C-alpha cells in the first residue's frame, strides 16, 4: 500500500546509516545539500568555459569555500543583529564549524572528477561525471533521508523526486551554459 511505512531490518538500517554518513548527513544536512548544488552548478559552468579538470577543481574549491564563509558570516551577522550583540570570535567560529558541511559537499563530486580525469576521460567528460555525481548525490540524499525517517512509500517517492528535480536542474544547467 502507498500509505504504509517503509520497513527495514537491522542490516538495511545499518546500510542506510552508512550511506548517510558517507554523504555527510550527520551534522548539518542543509549545508551538504547547499554545497552539492553549488558544486554541481560550478562544474556545469566550468564545462561551458572549456576548462580543465585541474582548473575546475580549483574553482569549485574556491567558490564553495567562499560560499561557506559568506553563509557562516551572514548567519552570524543575522544573529548579532537579532541579539544586538557585537562581533565575537566564539559564536563566529561555532557558526563556521556548523556550516563546514558546505565544504564536505565537495568530497564526492571532486573525487569523481579527479578519478575520471586520471582514468583518461576528456576534461568535458570528467566535468560531466562531476555534475552527474552531484545530481545523483541529491537523489541519494533525499532517498536516504526518507528511508532513515521511515516515511510511507508514497512520501519516499515524493522526496526522492524532489532530489531528482534538483539533480535534473544541474544537468539542464550543464547543457544550457554550453
Feature tags:
about 180 residues, 8 helices, mainly alpha
Question: How would you summarize the topology of this molecule?
Answer:
Blueprint lengths: L9 H14 L5 H21 L3 H31 L5 H10 L2 H4 L2 H12 L4 H26 L4 H24 L2
Helix pairs in contact: 1-7, 2-3, 2-7, 2-8, 3-4, 3-6, 6-7, 7-8
What's the count of strands? Answer: 0
> Which series of helices and strands comes N to C?
HHHHHHHH
Largest sheet: none
- Overall 3D geometry? globular
Number of helices: 8
- Structural class category: mainly alpha
Mean pLDDT figure = 90
Poorly predicted ranges: none
Approximate helicity band: over 70%
Indicate the proportion of strand residues: under 5%
Give the count of structural domains.
1
Radius of gyration: 18 Å
From the N-terminal CA to the C-terminal CA, the straight-line distance is 44 Å
Write up what this structure looks like.
The chain has 178 residues and is mostly helical. The protein has one domain. Helix content is 80%, strand content 0%. The chain is built from 8 helices and no strands. It is globular.
Question: What can be said about this structure in brief?
Answer:
This protein is an all-alpha fold and 178 residues long.
Amino acid at each position: 500500500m502507498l500509505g504504509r511505512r517503509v520497513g527495514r531490518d537491522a542490516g538495511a538500517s545499518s546500510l542506510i546509516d552508512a550511506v548517510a554518513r558517507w554523504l555527510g548527513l550527520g551534522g548539518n544536512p542543509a549545508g551538504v545539500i547547499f554545497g552539492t548544488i553549488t558544486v554541481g552548478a560550478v562544474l556545469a559552468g566550468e564545462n561551458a568555459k572549456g576548462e580543465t579538470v585541474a582548473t575546475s577543481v580549483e574553482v569549485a574549491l574556491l567558490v564553495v569555500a567562499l560560499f561557506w564563509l559568506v553563509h557562516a558570516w551572514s548567519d552570524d551577522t543575522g544573529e548579532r543583529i537579532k541579539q544586538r550583540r557585537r562581533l565575537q570570535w566564539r559564536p563566529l567560529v561555532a557558526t563556521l564549524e556548523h556550516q563546514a558541511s558546505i565544504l564536505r559537499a565537495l568530497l564526492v563530486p571532486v573525487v569523481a572528477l579527479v578519478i575520471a580525469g586520471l582514468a583518461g576521460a576528456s576534461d568535458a567528460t570528467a566535468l560531466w561525471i562531476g555534475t552527474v555525481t552531484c545530481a545523483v548525490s541529491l537523489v541519494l540524499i533525499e532517498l536516504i533521508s526518507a528511508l532513515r525517517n521511515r516515511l510511507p512509500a508514497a512520501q519516499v517517492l515524493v522526496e526522492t523526486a524532489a532530489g531528482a528535480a534538483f539533480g535534473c536542474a544541474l544537468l539542464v544547467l550543464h547543457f544550457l551554459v554550453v
